[in-house]
Specification:
Elements: E1 2-7, E2 10-14, E3 19-22, E4 38-42, H1 53-57, E5 64-69, E6 79-83, E7 88-92, E8 95-101, E9 107-113, E10 116-117
Parallel strand pairs: 3-4, 4-5, 5-6
Antiparallel strand pairs: 1-2, 2-3, 7-8, 8-9, 9-10
Length: 118
């Protein structure tokens, strides 16, 4: 697993199967393999945790899925899953997302990606 700090609360996590972009607000992304699927996760709607500009920055990626707290409006033309606290979602075989109440607005995330946990 590779973790790259982007800016403020934003991180890019790369596992052997996927990229995960957490709480992107601004900043540059490192070079990424355009064939590897990427999940964009935003914990809540505040501007320092969600910026729809991320989808423009990822426009060269072939597979993008947004996982957004249910207080965030769904972006146009992006495969989006709206999530609420206290739920479990199977994203792909061996890839499970758990959501929890946040200390702020929205959700906190726990992802099981095979034997890796984020």
């Amino acid at each position: 697993m590779r973790i790259t700090y982007i800016h403020h609360s934003g991180f890019l996590v790369e596992t052997h199967r996927f990229y995960y972009v957490f709480d992107y607000a601004s900043g540059d992304l490192p070079p990424m393999n355009p064939e590897k699927p990427v999940f964009v996760l935003s914990s809540h709607s505040h501007g320092d945790h969600y910026n729809p500009e991320i989808f423009l920055k990822l426009s060269g990626m072939q597979h993008i899925r947004a996982i957004l707290s249910d207080d965030i409006a769904r972006p146009a033309r992006v495969d989006t899953l709206s999530v609420s606290p206290g739920a479990t979602y199977t994203l792909n075989p061996g890839q499970i997302l758990h959501t929890f109440r946040s200390t702020d607005l929205g959700v906190a995330f726990l992802i099981e990606d095979g034997d890796e946990r984020i």
